[in-house]
Amino acid sequence: MFPIRDHNPSNRTPFVTWALTTISAQVTKGVRFHNPSNRTPFVTWALIVVNVLVFLSYFPSLSGSERLMMGFFADWALVPAEVLGGRDTHTVFTSMFLHGGWMHLIGNMLFLYIFGDNMEDLLGHLGFLGFYVVAGLAAAGGQILAGPTSTIPMVGASGAIAGVMGGYLLFFPRARIDILVLIVVLIRIFTIPAWLMLGLWFGLQLVSGLSMDVAGGGVAYWAHAGGFIAGVALVLPLWLRRGGPAYWAQWHGKPPHEEVEYVMDRGRRSPIPRVRRVQTDRAATRPLSDLGRVPRSGTRKPRPSPWSGGRE
C-alpha cells in the first residue's frame, strides 16, 4: 500500500528512513522465479488485469491535476480516521485496487506474478481469491491500528500481495528467486532462496515501520507487515494438516513440481542474446548449502559435487 502525500513533513532530514527505503528497494527486487505453477493461474492473471484496468481508468486522465486526483482518492482510497469514524468503509476494499503511480503498479504486479501462481496452485482458484482478499483486508486493518487518526489516503495492492508472500514463505521457503541488485551503474542478478528474500523483506517492513511516524505519510509498512502475518496465519492450518515440517522434507521446501533454469542463447542472425527457460528436475533436491553453485545465465554448469543431492 502507498500513502499519497504528507501534510506534516519533519523538520529534520530523515536519513534513517531514506537509508532503509534505499536498502529495501535495492535488495528485494524479485525479477523472476524458477518455480512456475503446473496449473494456469487464472485468478492471478485476472487480478493483474483488474489492477491494471482500474489504474488506467483514472490515472492518465487525473494525474495532471492534483486537485482532481486527491478528490478521487478521497472517495476511494482508505483513510484510517474516516473508516474508524464509520465513514467510507467501502474503501477498505476499493483501496486494494488503486495505485499512486506507474512504478507502484508495476512493482506490485511483478510481485503478484512471481508469488501468486504457486499459491493459487496450492489453494485452488476460489480459495486463492478468498485468501488474497482476506489478506488485503487484514493489511488495511494493520495500517489502521498503527495510525488510527491518520487522514492520509492510502492505496495499493501490496498489503494483499504481502499476504501471498507470507503464505509462500511458509510453504516454499527454499524456492529459488532471482533478484535484481543495482549497485551504482552495475546491474546483477543473483539467485537466493525465498526464505532469505522474504525474511529480509519482512524484517525491513518492521524496522522501517518502527522508525517512522505513521501519521507523517510514506510507505504503509504496517499494512505490509499486517498482510504478511495474515498470510502466514491463514495457511498455517493447511500447512499443519499436510504435515508441517514433514511437508518441507517431502518437497524439499519447494513447490511440488519441476523447476526451470534460465539459459542464454545467442542467435546466429542477431548478436543480442535471448534468455529462455528450460525445464529441469535437477534442482528439485538441491540442498540449501548448494544454492551458491547455481550457474548464472550463459555459464557452464559445474561438475557434480557430493553435496549437490538428488539426480545428476
Describe what you observe in this structure.
With 312 residues, the chain is α+β, with helices and mostly antiparallel strands. It contains eleven helices and seven strands. It has helices at 15-27, 42-62, 66-76, 80-84, 91-94, 102-123, 125-146, 158-171, 194-211, 221-241, 245-251; strands spanning 2-3, 30-33, 154-155, 176-183, 186-193, 259-266, 273-280. The strands form three sheets. It has a three-stranded antiparallel beta sheet. The longest helix has 22 residues, at 102-123.
Q: Decide which structural class fits the backbone.
A: alpha+beta
Taking all residues together, what is the mean pLDDT?
79
Q: Determine the N-to-C terminus distance.
A: 44 Å
Q: Percent range for helical residues?
A: 40-55%
Please describe the biggest sheet, giving its number of strands, its sense, and whether it closes into a barrel. Answer: 3 strands, antiparallel
The radius of gyration over CA amounts to 21 Å
| Spatial strand sequence of the major β-sheet | 2-4-5
Secondary structure: number of strands: 7
Q: Report the total helices.
A: 11
User: Strand content of the residues, in percent?
Assistant: 5-15%
Order of SSEs: EHEHHHHHHEHEEHHHEE
Entry summary:
The chain is an alpha+beta fold.
Give the helix/strand layout.
Blueprint: E1 2-3, H1 15-27, E2 30-33, H2 42-62, H3 66-76, H4 80-84, H5 91-94, H6 102-123, H7 125-146, E3 154-155, H8 158-171, E4 176-183, E5 186-193, H9 194-211, H10 221-241, H11 245-251, E6 259-266, E7 273-280
Antiparallel strand pairs: 1-3, 2-4, 4-5, 6-7
Helix pairs in contact: 1-9, 2-6, 6-7, 6-8, 7-8, 7-10, 8-9, 8-10, 9-10
